[in-house]
């Protein structure tokens, strides 16, 4: 490496990495090698380079030689994860686990030698970040996930715990900034693997860090978490903290968002939703380091949020890959399908999550869940595909007594009585959700997201989805009774509503919209719901569900009937 030194490049690098007096890289020495040159050296030597000699590279005065040592550790560590990538990590051999732990221990012992941002960023996520997701024998020699120990290691690096672990090196001193950067940049790997909990935990810890380099790192990791895992989760974090985040951190976090949304977050000066232990970011953080097999017991004990988190965050990318293979044969988008799958898992047995009881090996839970989702998609695509390829007057549903023989007039009568009776028997919140669902079904505008509507109704996301599920069950029951020729007991007010819909079915949409607005006033949270509608009107230029006066939505009952039945069976 010394034979490759370049004086001109050396001067450029010393300026770029701030090696002057008082700067963060003060006193660092460079050979003048570019990173690809260092990688080429590593490529030729890492296999035969003894691990015991790596510390000599890490202690070098030359920046590029220290980088070479770190990249050799990365190459050796990644070699020991090949089997973990091909099979379940818990099936790795004890020898591979022991050798990975040895590399990690060396990396942490010499962490102070990674004394600039490039040395940290090119190595920490591939060693420490990957180690967080793999089984370990540290600290007691027993193979396991050792969640508490992993959190302790990162807490030491972030200096939230003043007592260093038994790993060598010191917690603070000149290397404090770079160790703190390690604690957040390592989450790059965990986010890539679908686990946002580490990023959110240490982003909160470093939220008020004084150094600009940490602002950039935290914002960068939040942006990567949003891109790799969930933009909704990033927005939830911003709703809690954007008003107090350093401007550099916030700009990095929202860099890939549309201009209008970036301006919204940059101009946010107060917290619109006060932080509490019940917010979703806090719930995600509590899952930091929990291996997927351990979720089985949590879910069976009634932790619905654990299953919701697995589907929407931890395993979202793997589930989405399976969705892509079937999406052309499905009527709904990914988020709607995932919500329905969540309810399917919860409600398909005699008691919640009954199928999970039949899983013999917890280690197989992730595989079981992915295969179950694939089968669910296959069955749903087959059912919906038959409906989409059938004749215009046939229904995309499983056979129901009397459904196939119902003519247009009969369908109008059933729809009018169904809407009136559901409006009569549902409580205000269920009535509102029912009408909102019908309008969303008919309107091409994108409705207010379920998460925001649930918050406006003072409900959790989970409670809102369960309410929708139960509402569908009841409406399906009412529909089946009507198809069998039964009559529903309507009072005078709702009988008049049914007659009005029946006589003027082509203008069903404005009729539903008028009833929808009236239903808002019956809610205890009507002010919050009205505020949410007004917010969307100001941000997007239209009110959600608002009918277009110039070209009002005209409903064809046969088409609406088909949509309604498909909605009730998904």
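^ Assign residues to that structure.
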């Amino acid at each position: 490496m010394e034979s490759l030194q370049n004086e001109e490049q050396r001067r450029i690098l010393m300026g770029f990495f701030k090696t002057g007096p008082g700067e963060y890289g003060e006193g660092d020495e460079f050979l003048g090698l570019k990173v690809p040159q260092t990688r080429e050296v590593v490529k030729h030597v890492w296999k035969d380079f003894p691990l015991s000699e790596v510390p000599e590279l890490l202690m070098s005065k030359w920046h590029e030689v220290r980088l070479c040592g770190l990249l050799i550790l990365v190459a050796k560590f990644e070699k020991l994860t090949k089997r973990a990538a091909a099979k379940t990590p818990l099936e790795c051999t004890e020898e591979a686990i022991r050798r990975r732990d040895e590399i990690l221990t060396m990396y942490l012992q010499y962490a102070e030698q990674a004394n600039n941002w490039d040395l940290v960023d090119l190595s920490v996520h591939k060693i420490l970040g990957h180690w967080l997701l793999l089984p370990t024998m540290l600290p007691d020699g027993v193979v396991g996930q050792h969640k508490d120990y992993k959190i302790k290691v990162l807490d030491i690096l972030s200096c939230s715990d003043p007592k260093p672990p038994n790993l060598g090196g010191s917690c603070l001193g000149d290397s404090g900034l770079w160790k703190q950067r390690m604690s957040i940049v390592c989450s790059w790997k965990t986010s890539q693997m679908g686990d946002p909990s580490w990023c959110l935990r240490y982003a909160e810890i470093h939220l008020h860090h004084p150094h600009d380099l940490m602002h950039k790192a935290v914002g960068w990791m939040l942006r990567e978490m949003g891109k790799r895992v969930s933009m909704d989760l990033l927005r939830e974090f911003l709703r809690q903290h954007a008003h107090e985040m350093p401007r550099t951190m916030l700009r990095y976090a929202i860099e890939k968002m549309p201009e209008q949304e970036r301006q919204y977050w940059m101009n946010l000066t107060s917290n619109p939703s006060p932080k509490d232990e019940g917010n979703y970011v806090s719930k995600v953080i509590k899952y930091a380091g929990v291996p997927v097999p351990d979720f089985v017991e949590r879910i069976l004990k009634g932790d619905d949020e654990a299953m919701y988190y697995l589907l929407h965050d931890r395993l979202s990318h793997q589930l989405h890959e399976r969705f892509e293979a079937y999406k052309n044969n499905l009527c709904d988008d990914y988020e709607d399908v995932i919500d329905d799958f969540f309810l399917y898992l919860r409600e398909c047995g005699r008691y919640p999550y009954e199928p999970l009881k039949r899983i013999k090996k917890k280690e197989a839970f992730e595989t079981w869940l992915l295969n179950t989702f694939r089968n669910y998609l296959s069955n749903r695509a087959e059912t919906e595909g038959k409906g989409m390829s059938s004749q215009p007057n046939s229904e995309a549903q499983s056979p129901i007594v009397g459904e196939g023989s119902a003519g247009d007039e009969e369908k109008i009568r059933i729809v009018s009585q169904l809407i009136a009776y559901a409006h009569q028997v549902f409580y205000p919140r269920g009535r509102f959700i029912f009408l909102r669902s019908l309008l969303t079904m008919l309107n091409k505008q994108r409705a207010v997201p379920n998460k925001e509507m649930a918050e406006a109704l003072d409900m959790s996301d989970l409670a809102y989805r369960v309410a929708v599920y139960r509402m569908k069950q009841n409406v399906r029951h009412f529909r089946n009774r009507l198809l069998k020729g039964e009559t529903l007991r309507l009072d005078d007010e709702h009988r008049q509503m049914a007659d009005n819909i029946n006589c003027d079915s082509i203008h069903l949409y404005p009729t539903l919209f008028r009833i929808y607005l009236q239903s808002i006033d019956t809610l205890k949270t009507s002010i919050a719901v009205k505020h949410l509608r007004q917010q969307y009107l100001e941000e997007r230029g239209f009110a959600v569900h608002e009918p277009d006066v110039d070209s009002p939505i005209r409903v064809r009952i046969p088409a609406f009937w088909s949509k309604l039945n498909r909605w009730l069976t998904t």
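Residues 365-389 form the longest helix (25 residues).
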